[in-house]
Structure formats: C-alpha cells, structure tokens
Amino acid sequence: MNVQVFEDLQRIQREREADRLRMEGLGVTEESIALLVSTFYERIRESPSLGPIFNGAISDWPNHLATMNTFWSSLILRSNTYTGKPIQAHMKLDGLTSEHYRQWLILFDLTLRDVFPETDAREPFITRARAIAERLESVTVQGNE
User: Model pTM?
Assistant: First the structure.
C-alpha cells in the first residue's frame, strides 16, 4: 500500500471517530438509534396509509429493525456496518406515492423530536432522511401516480 493511500485511510478513520464522538456527545448512541428505529416503525405500522404497505412487505420485523439500526448507525455514527441495498428493497413496494413519502418524513421528524430533544442531534438524521426519501421517491413512484 502506498503512503498516500495509507494516510487517506487514517484520515478517514479519524474523521469517522470524530463524527461518532460528536454525535455521542449529543446523546446519539447505538441504543438511542435503536429506540428511534423501533418507535418510528411502530408508528409506521400503526399508520392507516403506511401500515398496510410496510406490514404487507415486511414479514420479519425483528430482522428489519436490526437492519435499520445498522443502516442508521452507519450513516450517523459512521460505523460502516450496513451492507444492504435500500433502493432494490423499496422497488418491491407496490403503490407508493409522493404522499406516502411526505407522511414517512413527517412521522420520522416527529419521532426524532421525541427521541432526541437536542436539535443538533436531529439535524444529521433529518437531512439524510430527506435525501433518502427524495432518492427513493424518484425511483419508486414513477408510474404509480
């Protein structure tokens, strides 16, 4: 391995660690992410419009929640442990509309506010959630509206 590659890898690792420590200082931990994920998906499952879609598509909720914990940990705590393919998974969901994505974001934001009272802790989550919703909406809603 050449010196530049090694130095880049070390820099990336330092940045990941700094991000993790900053988020943990704001109360964001693996445990709080798990609380966010479980609370959010409980609300999704109870939603009159989103519940039927997600409940119909997800047969193994414990596994899905574990995957979502890993997904959000990778994004927010930079754990680099998620290896899934969210676009392919969402392509299987029938009947999604732009309104479903708006509702998803509203529920996510409300859950964030309940789990993380600190605005600085919420910002990285909601920023990424909006980008994710926009990307997924662009590939899954085509032809459904």
Answer: 0.86
Q: How far, in Å, CA of 55 to CA of 65, rounded?
A: 13
Q: How far apart are the first and last CA of the chain?
A: 51
Instruction: Give residue-wise pLDDT tens across range 86-112.
Output: 787 777 777 889 999 999 999 999 999
DSSP string, the chain: --HHHHHHHHHHHHHHHHHHHHHHHTT--HHHHHHHHHHHHHHHHH-TTTHHHHHHH-S-HHHHHHHHHHHHHHHHS--------HHHHHHT-TT--HHHHHHHHHHHHHHHHHH---HHHHHHHHHHHHHHHHHHHHHHSTTT-
